[in-house]
Design brief:
Strand order of the largest sheet: 1-2-3-4-5-6-7-8
Number of strands: 8
Strand content: 15-25%
Structural class: alpha/beta
Largest sheet: 8 strands, mixed
Oligomer: single chain
Helix content: 25-40%
Number of domains: 1
CATH superfamily: Aldolase class I
CATH architecture: Alpha-Beta Barrel
Order of helices and strands: EEHHEHEHEHHEHEHE
CATH class: Alpha Beta
Length: 229
Amino acid sequence: MNIGGLQKLTLLDYPGKIACTVFTVGCNLRCPFCHNASLVTHPQDAGYVTDDELFSFLKKRVGILDGVCVTGGEPTLQRDLPDFLEAVKALGYSVKLDTNGTNPKLLRSVISDRLVDYVAVDIKNSPEKYITTSGGIDLFENIKETVSLLLSDVIEYEFRTTAVAGFHETEDFESIGKWIQGTKRYFIQNFVDSGDLISPDVLGIPKEKMNEFLKAAQKYIPTAELRGI
């Protein structure tokens, strides 16, 4: 596994669990507002964590941490992800996988093999604007397949969208709502500048506008929520 970072404690990333977060290197999308851009555009500069270092840490935290979040970058690009998840599960941890949804075949496999317990998929934008929002890369058919897989309730999951000025309008959230209608969990979160972006001058959304976005999504997903506001 190409691991570019480890957050040793998080109370936010894995709902209901005390966890750590593992950051994998590399991504197949180029979203301008990506908040872990260095893992995508400059993987050679990542502060790599070896498998031995990570598993030494995890073994020491058995009984203290409940879960491990695997995020990126895009974790499903890692060829040895299934073996890695199996080793994490063998220690007794629950696993949350964050993904952009572009590898439904691998996702289906790790779900079937019970190597993950919770999946979070970033819905970048409405279908009509997806390619532009993801940096001009067209993997939307794969993402549609992932959405359909999760809507069949094969695992606990959530969909979430980061709202960004200039990329998202109210009608986009109505369109997203139509697309993922039936989901139990959909969160809209405001963009926050991490200082590590692919494109500069990206801005968040005023609170009033965020409430408009939520109301638009709730036409089709009554349980939709704002997160972090």
